[in-house]
């Protein structure tokens, strides 16, 4: 059966209940300017009517699995009142039909209170907190519209999550500044007790649009000379060095204790399992995003007019997410790879990474190479002996964490950064 046959795999649609509204103005944010797509409506918040329509259709028509995951994202999700999410939980129970409902929500953490945290704990919500490491790293780009730092408020929010026993994880953006300090960055998360961490490289391009937007769409051709790399973007070399240093510390002492999404996904690809993150998968297109007014887009990083699939008031989720247009979008991740990628020994491990970053050219001048390719190639070559060992353990139904003992016993070389 084709992976794009209806209902052959879970369908996910990320919700933007407050659109691009946010109480921060992070320099590298890729979502703040999305409000300019809807300049005719200054409020830009999801109505109760649309909330109920989505929840009913998402559960009853678009899902076939016994578990249904709702993902709430922003902007800043807590710009909507707690009553909005309490209503969402009521509606989920109303339409659950015996299914298990799970919720995860992403927040910058600055607006968390005891009341919010108690709600998350009582309803078993997973909370993702955006935090870019120690205070100097975090406050470099994550500031208020008035230019004030946000680190202290974020840490207060994390303390409240811990106080109420809320399950949480960290999402850190790796940029041109903090990428040069991988161990300080990683050790900070261990110090604050964050055991599940997503390190996301920031890569954006700039191009002025008539409506005031400045981020380039993946469809914008860099050959016209108007598209340029955003200054906060991490460089390919930085990204490779960052990952190698991080991996050396992790594989020496933290496997099975701290979970880094990219390393878990790399190991999954190494053993032939689904990587669990779309950027590392062979194809994509099964995870869309719905804006506050019902507009559905192909992906969270593709909220541009040319990637709009329709609107929930006029199109069904199944029609939009399993239609030919979205199917072609997902398959293009695999089919549009340049020859250099198709012949690369590490293709199985990265699958070309996220298509939005494929604006570089190969050594032969062919377009479609991932901007971060150099860094990924360095990383995969560096981790190969350890991934091979963990794969053998996994295949033998033993714990991949045994790699740490193998290093201590000299069966594997001591990682370079750990040796330092």
Describe the model:
By secondary structure, the protein is an alpha/beta fold. Helices cover 36% and strands 14% of the residues. The protein contains 15 helices and 14 strands. The chain has a 10-stranded mixed beta sheet. A two-stranded antiparallel ribbon has the order 7-8. Helix 3 links the parallel strand 3 and strand 4. Helix 7 runs parallel beside helix 13 and helix 8 packs across helix 13. It is globular, with a radius of gyration of 21 Å. The termini are far apart. The N terminus is likely disordered.
| Total DSSP E strands | 14
Mean pLDDT: 94
- The H/E string reads EHEHEHEHHEHEEEHEHEEEHHHHEEHHH
The outline comes out as globular
Strand order, largest beta sheet: 9-6-5-4-3-2-1-10-11-12
- How far apart the termini lie comes to 50 Å
Largest sheet: 10 strands, mixed
**Category from helices, strands and their pairing:** alpha/beta
In short:
The chain has 420 residues and is an alpha/beta fold.
